[in-house]
Amino acid sequence: MRTLGLTICALILASCAPSAPSSASNTTAPPPAGQATVPTQQANAALAARLPLGNPSDQTDAERGRLAFIDAPAILSADGNVVWAIPQFEFLNGDAPDTVNPSLWRQSQLAAHHGLFEVSDGIYQVRGYDLAVMSVIEGDTGWIIVDPLTTTETAAAALKLVNDTLGTRPVTGILYTHSHADHFGGARGIISEEDITARSVPILAPIGFSTSAVSENLIAGNHMSRRSTLMFGNTLPRSATAHIGSGLGPGLPNGTVSLILPTEEISGRGTIRVIDGVTFEFIDAAGTEAPAEFMFYLPEKRALCTAEVATATFHNILTPRGAKVRDALGWSRAIDHVLAEYGDKSDVVFASHHWPTWGAENVQTFLSDQRDIYRYVHDQTLRHANSGATMFEAAEAIEEPAFQTEAFNTRGYYGTLNHNSKAVYQHYFGWWGGVPADYNKLPHEVSAARYVAAMGGPEAVIDLGAKAFAEGDYRWAAEVFNHVVFAAPDNKTAKDWLAATYEQIGFQAESGAWRSYYLTGAAELRRGVPDVGNPGLGNKDFLRAVPSLDLFDAMAARFDPAKMTHEPFVVNFTFTDTGETLSLHLNKAVIVPREGTVSDAAASVTTTRALFDQVILGETSVQTELVRGNFTIGGDIGAVSAVFQSLDRAEFWFPVVTP
Ligand SMILES: [Zn+2]
């Protein structure tokens, strides 16, 4: 038990110099930021001793066939902003510092190799300028681009590097392997819609692409995007004490995301298309890593592209940014299918992230290891769950399988056994583990205050957490400090301790996503939520592709019933450019969108869908467009105003690590 004098001293110290090391007590303040504790040093050293990190095969593959690189300090946007600094990961040299998990350090070194690489005859990749990889296949007359990166700026720079190095050729085909933006967002950087029409350039994507690309992130987009900033470490510096890579790729570029919809969506397994003289055999993999995804085989080149289904990491069954949970068993089966069908016909396998694997035997080993890790987490979670384990117990019980020691591509650089096991549990059983006390728990802010009171008050709880911290028991320390932070978010001492704890967890994490999430969490506890203004509310390209009914559903999810004082009513909408009619049915507590109009509506709005999108994006308002005559409203104008005034506009930078 501490004395009152020490408590006051601690409070004063905490308020004056929260990060300063203290000789008085563990509890006065945590150790300085940016330093690995002894337990963290020991954990990282133990992993380095256990894994064959010096095995050079991945290093050889990651550097193989490099033809050129971008010899400029940065890829810039049209207005001169840095979209991608080159090189931003130069510090990743030599052995891992003690502030980085040595296995993640190795993975980040491999992912940081940048340039244009020859994969095999007529197949190239641009790597290291984006989260994803752009593959380029030589057709009879031009380039077939596979996955034009996340932003128009990085995609344009990648294509320029290809043309400058190999000779300028037109883009004669584009493939989007799946519906995630890091694989299609740069399309406008390599081609225009006019060009596509004028030259009949095919854009092929997997079945369901258009719906998934625009809808997956629409209704839940604000929450997902905010959590993405933690997961990808967007607000962290690049350094050995901060962001060093995501595990999936170096990082996200800060540029313009576009969307050009495909000209054809491909379904089935073994579907053949010939693009610019090159034969593609497509293998549908919907519901694995993305809701819409395909892999493909190039028979003339004996090359297999596994898109993002099989890459040089264990991927996420449920990404930390949040998404609908994925199917680990279906994922494993899809990889087994390509192993069985194409494994002995492939001299190289390349993907939409990371470097290729060469040699028939290596290809088959890679595919079987990838298949096995998804099946392992699936089967073992169910084995434990069927024996009565809850979600957390199953995740705790699953041990690292022996093959992960050698097969680096199966290690948890992005997804982890821990959170993927929880995802498998959720896929089958939902979030609840079946214990009644957990079914209707108090909100954490409420229970945290009661825990802190029951444990003797904030000082005593911080003491307990500091003791756990000193012992290197960071999971427990995080839980203890988090109670104080959620009970009293202004308690700076508790926040500094929790930040220090998150930092050590981040320094030990093998997953780049975990590292960035914990380290961003630490930064937000120390400095608060970034004050950088709200990012754009959306993107015209994306919104234009959203079906009107889905757009209205997204509006309905912003409806705050407390702001609606009117009795139930209906507003009709007619979009003159798309020829659509819809209606919004304002009820007591919900908005129900429907196709078609009703005869007894309180008001009828006539405009274009394009202008309506601008209102949704906040670029203009109903009032402004009414004055301009671009919105026509029949009936009760007040009813239309009431609809728009009842919609929440969510803050992007909502607190995550504090209540
Ligand atoms: Zn990706």
Task: Find the structural class using helix and strand composition.
Answer: alpha+beta
Topology, number of strands: 21
How would you sum up the global shape?
A: globular
Largest sheet composition? 8 strands, mixed
N/C terminus separation:
29 Å
Seen as an oligomer or otherwise, the chain set is single chain
> How much beta, percentage-wise?
5-15%
Mean pLDDT, as a whole number? 93
Helix content: 25-40%
Major sheet: arrangement of strands = 1-4-5-6-7-8-9-10
Q: Ions, cofactors, ligands: which are bound?
A: zinc ion
Radius of gyration: 27 Å
Low-confidence stretches: 1-26
What's the helix count? 23
Structure characterization notes:
This protein has 659 residues and is of the alpha+beta class. The strands form four sheets. An eight-stranded mixed beta sheet has the order 1-4-5-6-7-8-9-10, with helices on one face. α8 crosses α18, α14 packs across α16 (474-487) and α15 (458-470) runs parallel beside α17 (492-508). The radius of gyration is 27 Å and the shape is globular. Mean pLDDT is 93; it is low at 1-26. Zinc ion (ZN) is lined by residues 132, 180, 182-183, 308, 352-353.
